[in-house]
Amino acid sequence: MKFVLPDTQAARATLKDEFYETGRCSIAPILSDENALALETFLAEFEDWHRMRGFQSRRFDMPPRRTWEGNPDAVAESDQIERAIATDSGKAFAYRYDAISMVPDELAAMGETPLAALRKAFTDESTLAFIRELSEEEAVREVEIQATRFREGDFLSQHHDGPTHDRKVATVLGLSRDWIADWGGNLLFPSVDERIEGLSPGFNRLDLFGVPQFHLVTAVAASAPRPRIAVSGWFVS
């Protein structure tokens, strides 16, 4: 699996200009149709997602539901935390969504999967060289990524990913086919003059934006026919 990166100097220059002027850009398609479909199918069928939750500077992550759903106390506590996060989300940084870690050791334990192949695409030297050229961040050498699933009501409130010494360029590889803005899960970028720009979830599209930069993911609506699926994280030094 490899990324389909712009193959002409003119196309690369256009993306670089856009990234310089706005702090972000997108590439689509970023994978072959076959590889994008394999990732979409794998993530749609995968069952052992971890639950990532946080608010008021505290984290309440949970292992896959099958490991604790038979425990009434654990279920009650989890439901209580879900409600607390939903009601507190407008007051402080908060989030709730599902995730699959994509650190090398954990991917190796899963065997050969599309996620393992995707990580190789992210860390291929041609990809890293392109990101260095695009962002002028010569220190980029690695990635920190995870698969994410936003179900009904899941969201990620406003934050800016930094400043940190290692995160250079944030990335979201969308795997949400035929998604519309009404279903939520939109990646938004608020500005100081109260304007908001953003993107609806895409399919086989790689979104890139500089760090730090304020952004958020809106709550997925009850009308959404399926979860918002993506692979997200950062290119890092």
From TrEMBL:
The lineage of its organism: Bacteria, Pseudomonadati, Pseudomonadota, Alphaproteobacteria, Sphingomonadales. SMART domains: P4Hc (SM00702). InterPro entries: Pro_4_hyd_alph, TPA1/OFD1_N, uS12_prolyl_hydroxylase. Residues 22-236 form the Prolyl 4-hydroxylase alpha subunit domain. It holds the Pfam family 2OG-FeII_Oxy_4. Its cofactor is L-ascorbate. PANTHER family: HISTONE ACETYLTRANSFERASE COMPLEX, PROLYL 3-HYDROXYLASE OGFOD1. The keyword Oxidoreductase applies. This is 2OG-Fe(II) oxygenase. Keywords: Dioxygenase, Oxidoreductase. The keyword Oxidoreductase applies.
